[in-house]
Amino acid sequence: MTVQERNKSQISKQRRMPSLLSFPAFTSLSLSLLLTISISLQIPPSKKTFIVLVDSDSKPSPFISHHHWYSSLISPPPPPFIHIYTTLFHGFSANLASHQSDHIKKSPGVLAIFPDSILNLHTTRSPGFLGLNNPNSSISRLSNGGDDTIIGILDTGIWPERKSFTDYGMGPMPPRWRGECMEGNRFNRSSCNRKLIGARFFAGGYNASPVGPVNDTAEFRSPRDSNGHGTHVASIAAGAHVAGASFRSFARGTAKGMAPKARIAIYKVCWDSGCLLSDVCKAMEEAISDGVDIISISLGLSSPLPFYLDLFAIASFRAFQKGIFISVSAGNEGPYQASMANSPPWIMTVGAGTIDRDFPATISLGNGNTIHGVSLTPHDELTRLPHPLVKISPPFSTFSPQSMHGRIVLCMAVGHVPRIPIGAAMKRAGAVAMIISHGNLDPRGVITESHVIPAIVVGVTEAKFIDDYISYGKDPTAVIVSDGLVSPHIEPAPMVVSFSSRGPNMVLPEILKPDLLAPGVNILGAWTDVIAPPDAALGIQRLEFNILSGTSMACPHVSGVAALIRSAHHEWSPSEIKSALMTTASQHCSTAPFPPIIDESSGNAASPFDIGAGHLHPVRAVDPGLVYDVGPNDLVNFLCGLNYTDEQMKIVTGKRLSCVKDGVDREMNYPAFVVVMEEIGVAGGVFERRLKKVSEDEGVVYYRAKVVGLEGFRVWVKPRRLRFCGGPGESLGFRLGVGLGEKGMDGGDGIGRSGLAYGALIWREGGGKHVVRSPIVVFSKKRFMGFKKV
Ligand SMILES: *[C@@H]1O[C@H](CO)[C@@H](O)[C@H](O)[C@H]1NC(C)=O
Ligand SMILES: *[C@@H]1O[C@H](CO)[C@@H](O)[C@H](O)[C@H]1NC(C)=O
Ligand SMILES: *[C@@H]1O[C@H](CO)[C@@H](O)[C@H](O)[C@H]1NC(C)=O
Ligand SMILES: *[C@@H]1O[C@H](CO)[C@@H](O)[C@H](O)[C@H]1NC(C)=O
Known about the structure:
21% helix, globular, seven-stranded parallel beta sheet, single chain, binds 2-acetamido-2-deoxy-beta-D-glucopyranose, alpha/beta, seven-stranded mixed beta sheet
């Protein structure tokens, strides 16, 4: 999700409520930030959409097809099915009255029934920042830009005419591709090419939902994107090179995606008022049948439920078992602990970090002080002369337009308020510019948004300073100036941006989440051409590119790099790609003296609950040396370790499996270690893991274990040395033990105060270059308030 998506969810509520301010409807041009939001609002009216999961083996023999069977389950009379699911799981979705759904629940062969839910949406510089610009690097040589890998993107659609999606220099279609270019409003077969190889749209669930149906005046009933989010995300993952790309003269340079030669297939599942889970599941199923290798989803799929009650967890489990790598945005609910819930270990969950670029601008106050901020307003549109300053804070419905006229407005838009419409309202009221503070969401003012009014974003401290000046100064005035340039970020990058959702994992604390950090702040990407009427009235222009922030933008960075790795190593499974990305991630800033990555919200070093294994490092990820792979039985053992019943096992896996009750190991071969302290001072664990050699080196290679951090704990590794003497594919096991040291962990200043201690297990190749690093985390459940295990 991007930071904008939160705004969007609020705006769609606002649209239904008359407000004094009368915000214009949210449109694609509302260029604010956040997109990863969540969550499942369940649908109220008398008939609701349900998704029914059946045991396909239990189809009673009198029925000649599943369809006949499904119809027999509903009486009277069978409604039209919205979707029939045939690949990832068997079942259907339909609008049902409550007596019908009750009846179905009790019918033989029905495994589970889920209410449909509404989900919301949650770069010129970033490839260089990630070390992808050197054509000689191993990742560039081995992957050939991700050629031969297909990334499926589930989002708001695509604007296919953007230069990022030209197929110049692309080889023929991969022969295994079975997808389609679905025709519809302003979209036909010629909209696809050898870059954008497929496009479909899914509206059945949306049309049947209370927020639907598709509004043909405002959006396209086709894969065409009227919002911009999908176009942006697709260009980040796999956009072709576009020279001279920029956003209103900022961020000028060559725009290209992470995997500029990977193929894109678009699955439009999001419409003006949200995305429906029933459509998302159908899109995943079709994407896999079409032949995608990677699925990228920048949507709010967070669920705090156990996997057997969470249809996305179930669908993604099945997809993973079919060899699909799935990357999902972590959400924009930070900086609070336990603010993320996309928890399954079989998906890659991506948080957002800053990049080394900034859009500096300054405010000169009438009292002679200068305040620094960031702004995407071009220099010549900013205020040249001093203007009087006024302040507004929530609720924004009470200000008087006369008081805004000719003023610069300090807007305390703290928390998740829709800021673009506030800017539009200020503009209508005749304000000349807006100074925005996002509060804790962006305490240092690093996130920039493109407002319809000249605007500058400042940090919490700066906002307080200006506020004091307005309150106590005499006739307060200000001038805003920007040099209109992009400059290197003043602070070390990456930082974990405040809004990025944090661990611990709400559902399964022993699986570390998020998994990884990737660029998600001020990212340039391709954009839609649509300008809805309210924006047009405000004089907004068309944009080839736009700058957005959010975990929505971080997720496709990982999807694109996963495509590069897959192109370099066709035989790798999704878990091996995931391990490679995690064990090579960086915990340090990209420039000397390489300080640890910090958390923007606190200014302290980031913990694994903020960054997972660390920040994406593509050049190292293509050659990790060793990987933690997940074997076919590992996930099953893992679910058994959760004490799932046979029925719950069947719901998740689709297979009839019985768990052996004794000696079940709840572990899976995950590239991170988490010890959950049930009681203060009571912790310890022994992990059994294995490493598989994937490097091509001949002869014997040694790796030595080293544990860093976790002072006050007793941590051991057996054996301490792994000797690989076979070729690629050889696997060796080891055990890691974590226990209390002599001093104990309470009382000391480590875990005692914060409830959290962490370090890492590092396997270093003897005389070689490979370093395989996994975070080790010990934390106290009690100290993480609001944290509930389900
Ligand atoms: C890549 O390697 C070639 C040949 O060794 C060299 O001429 C070229 O300068 C290198 N390019 C970069 C960007 O390092
Ligand atoms: C497909 O769309 C393009 C551009 O929108 C148009 O030029 C072309 O005539 C259309 N083709 C068909 C078959 O409708
Ligand atoms: C559809 O969109 C148009 C244009 O934005 C708007 O005027 C109209 O009210 C919308 N219709 C519905 C039913 O929401
Ligand atoms: C599963 O059951 C065992 C034995 O009853 C218990 O020790 C363990 O804590 C349970 N695990 C979970 C995840 O509930």
